[in-house]
Amino acid sequence: MYDIVIIGSGPAGLSSAIYAQRAGLKAVVVEKNYLGTGQIAESERVDNYPGLYGENGFDLGEKFRSHAESLGTEFIEGEAVKISKNTTDYSIELDNGNSLETHTVIYAVGTERRKLQVEGEKEFSGRGVSYCAVCDAAFYKDKITAVAGGGDTALGDAALLSKFAKKVYLIHRRDKFRANKTLQQKVENISNVEILLNSQIKKINGSNKVESITVDKNGTETDIKVDGVFVAVGSVPNSAILKDLVEVDDNGYIVANEDGVTSANGIFVAGDVRTKKLRQVVTAVSDGANCVLSAEDYLEKIK
Questions:
Q1: Catalytic residue among 89, 132, 152, 216, which?
Q2: Which of 165, 225, 251, 252 is the most buried (most CB within 10 A)?
Q3: Which DSSP letter does residue 292 get?
């Protein structure tokens, strides 16, 4: 029986692990990917984490993990597929057939990338369609690429790709970007980035790999030759296994304030999967710490 089972090993989960160890609680981190550190590992550069300006996302994630490991954190590889309530405790079933018993759960599994849901996207995934510019940008040296999206991730992807590709189309369905102003100004000044606003990718075309995209701009469709399409149109919360246990909003995010307290006693939520205005590494780390404090308060009441 654990005091806390932490599901997820991104910044929120690792922060929870660090605070749980410091509090002397019996805790374990369940991680879907071996030695995982979450989506931060896919960030080329992190400019908004205090004291570590310009840190590579993979390196920053590794530092979080090393900190947790140095305190003796226990990790179990596996994906949580079901969480069941047993009076005051919880049972967590993993995809490998194992199960864990715990007084409390800190759920910190984040989000997954939203798809365009257009013809050709699924067919060419891994053959010209990518969801990670940091992972795949180098494969498009001197080629033509397109980025779909209007937030920080999309503009950051376009800036990164511009260092490799000879041409980058930045395609956004609205008439202005949602990204921060500094990033917008940076991208607007990159010579090999062409911005297409009020535009949507309607189809991804090719034979064995991506060869072109069909773009609708104000009702007029045009085929544009590209070698790769990078999708950065937001994220979907990984909250499915908790929907019958806790309150979620209309978009599937788990309802909780900064203390991580959900509508279910003993279940706390941290990071991008909870309702919040700002989804960044700095807020994920804060969430993780707060959840442990909330879990401690709950454990004092039930023990």
A1: 132
A2: 165
A3: H
Flag the least confident range among 12-21, 49-58, 144-153, 228-237: 49-58
Burial letters 163-178, b for 16+ CB under 10 A, else e:
ebbebbbbbbbeeebe
Check residue 256 and report its DSSP letter. -
> Which position among 47, 59, 135, 244 bears the catalytic label?
135
Contacts of 6 (CB under 8 A, 6+ apart): 13, 16, 17, 20, 27, 28, 29, 30, 105, 106, 108
Q: Is 132 a known active-site residue?
A: yes
- Output the CA angle 35-286-18, nearest 5 degrees: 45
The answer to whether the beta carbons of residues 219 and 98 sit under 8 Å apart is no
Q: For the whole model, what pTM was predicted?
A: 0.81
Single out the residue of 112, 123, 130 nearest to residue 203, CA to CA. 123
Q: Does 135 participate in catalysis according to the annotation?
A: yes
CB of 108 within 8 A of CB of 269? yes
DSSP category for residue 148: E
% pLDDT > 70, the chain:
100
